Amino acid sequence: MTESATTMITVQDVHKWYGDFHALKGINMNIKQGEVIVIFGPSGSGKSTFIRTINRLEDHQRGEIVVRGTRLTHDIRNIEAIRMDTGMVFQQFNLFPHLTVMQNITLSPIQVRKWTKQKAEEIAIQLLERVGIPEQAHKFPGQLSGGQQQRVAIARALAMQPKIMLFDEPTSALDPEMIKEVLDVMVELAKSGMTMLVVTHEMGFARAVADRMFFFDQGQIVESGTPKDIFEAPKEERTKLFLSQILSH
Amino acid sequence: MNQSNTILPPITERSGFIGWLRKNLFGTWLDSFLTIVSVVFIYWVIKALYTWVFTIAEWEVIAANLRLFIIGQFPLEQAGRLWIALAFLLFLTGNSLAIWDKRAYAPAVLTLCFPLFLAFLPFENSTRQWLIILAVTGFVGWRLGFSKPDALKKTVVIGWVIALPIFVLLTRGFTETDGVGALAIVGTNLWGGLLLSFLLTVVANIFSFPLGLALALGRRSELPIIRWFSIGYIELIRGVPLITILFMAQLMLPLFLPDSINVDRVLRAMIGMTLFSAAYLAENVRGGLQAIPKGQFEASYALGLNSIQTMTFVIMPQALRLIIPILVGQFIAVFKDTALVAIVGLFDLLGIGRTVLAQPEFLGLHREVFAFISLIYWVLSYAMSYISQRLEESLGVGKR
């Protein structure tokens, strides 16, 4: 009982195929409440696919994913329950361009959680203050910089009061000078005790806040461990090679 | 001195009208030649047109039959109902312009003054009174919209929603007593002219819209039956000319229905046009849907919105905004296509034109009649196109 109370996500032997292409080859992972997990690896290694199976943006064909006690199946009720509990931040922000920042953030709380507009807007303002851009509430996404857009996207995901946050390469589409403002928000979020799964190549971020790191390659977890293990004593050749490539400059 | 070096003023050409002429029209020998030929050609066309319009054309045919062109055989003693319906529309237009397009003084004044302008033409006095009433209601609506924009918003939207039923009700009437009483029924066989074209257009466009949306979504559905039905419907209708559908509705349908069921002819034309327009609309909407990136769906799903909410709040608003120009193009096409009902024997603007030409005293005046009909079509089509441009501007299409 005590163990299930603290386990947020259980992933067992998950496989996924795109046609003939075997994208995920038996992934196992166990994530506890408050853990910050960093997933990294070369492009095409399946790390994005994996994180997207957790809220069913991609389906898996074999294995089992359990999020906070709810098993992920084709049952739409389970999927919706899990999506209510997980927030997601995308590489391309995916803000709704026809809605203002405020409307972007309050849309789902009003429609799905059935909050009043007033309550949703109060919380939205708090979240915008938390990500540092309360003054942008009534602008449209197209009027903001990339870093600001991504911070709005984080606020939008947090507005649903998720228990788990998924980040799919949140800084990869940003100009270099904007990466820090987004990472600062993520670090603050990690320190507040949020359970986070982050696909990223920001090794500084990983070193600072990750509890565990997973190295993906060719649809498999090649190596996992604490940042200390991974950075200072990687066991696998592939991990060493990849780290040397991304840390060399 | 340094400052003047960093920011240079744009280079302006200091040349007047002559310089402009020399640069743009007489730059080379070829330019000069083309300019002269064009001027001669334009002069020739304008002179011919001018001579025809002001000296040859016999416009009595229009003046004498104006009522037929506008409302067909609709009984004159009931025409007040149509004026009231029109006044209601103008009131709503004034309201909406003031509420949603505050800065558009010029178009608003132009639209609302149009009836006043018409009032200066040599009409009968009753017509003139009604035209002035129209302008006044329009202006009252406009002023009201300015003074209480927020309070009126909801009322105006409701007003537009009930505008068509009210218009149809006032046109048709509902008391049984034949021809007497304020709201006696006027059979659709008496509807004609611009009134009929207008009603056909509005009904076909309004009802084909939800149908087209449903078909567009159906075509993307994951349920095979719905998808196949949508594809079948769209491809079948798009593969058939409108005129055949209208013939089917007018001539074939009665063969299949029992004698006791008698569907009104105008209603049949409306249904035919609606069904036809829906298939095209569905394809236009599908085009808009395909332009929405996959990430929009994903972000919406990830936030816990279900597929209906995603369509309603995230995808459709963006898709429809993208295709406003195409949609308006289609609305205009439907308006012009209503002319085809003349061929199946209804008296729309074109049908009335042909009956007018069949009157012995107006034989051979085709040019006047068709020029007048074309002018009406052009004015209204251009108005729609203009509204579409304003709508695009105010919604900021293409800016984000």
What do these coordinates show?
The complex is a heterodimer of chains A (249) and B (400). Chain A has 249 residues and is of the alpha/beta class. In chain A, 41% of the residues lie in helices and 25% in strands. Chain A has ten helices and ten strands. In chain A, strand 7 (164-168), helix 7 and strand 8 form a beta-alpha-beta unit. In chain A, helix 4 packs across helix 5 and helix 5 (117-130) crosses helix 6. The radius of gyration of chain A is 18 Å and the shape is globular. The termini of chain A are far apart. Residues 1-5 of chain A have low confidence and may be disordered. Chain B is an all-alpha fold and 400 residues long. Chain B has three domains: 24-55, no CATH class; 57-74 and 195-400, Orthogonal Bundle (MetI-like fold); 76-185, no CATH class. Chain B is built from 17 helices and no strands. In chain B, helix 9 packs across helix 12. The radius of gyration of chain B is 26 Å and the shape is globular.
Cα end-to-end separation of chain B: 40 Å
Described by the principal axes of the CA atoms, the overall outline of chain A is: globular
Overall mean pLDDT of chain A = 93
CATH architecture of the largest domain in chain B: Orthogonal Bundle
Q: Determine Rg of chain B (CA atoms, Å).
A: 26 Å
What does the radius of gyration of chain A come to? 18 Å
The largest chain-to-chain contact, stated as pair and per-chain residue counts, equals:
A-B, 28 and 21 residues
List the helices and strands and how they pair.
The complex is a heterodimer of chains A (249) and B (400).
Chain A: H1 2-6, E1 7-18, E2 21-32, E3 36-40, H2 47-54, E4 62-67, E5 70-71, H3 76-85, E6 86-89, H4 101-111, H5 117-130, H6 146-158, E7 164-168, H7 176-191, E8 195-199, H8 203-209, E9 212-217, E10 220-225, H9 227-232, H10 237-247
Helix pairs in contact in A: 4-5, 4-6, 5-6, 6-7
Chain B: H1 2-6, H2 17-24, H3 29-56, H4 60-71, H5 79-100, H6 105-119, H7 125-147, H8 149-172, H9 193-219, H10 224-238, H11 242-256, H12 265-290, H13 294-302, H14 307-322, H15 324-337, H16 349-358, H17 366-395
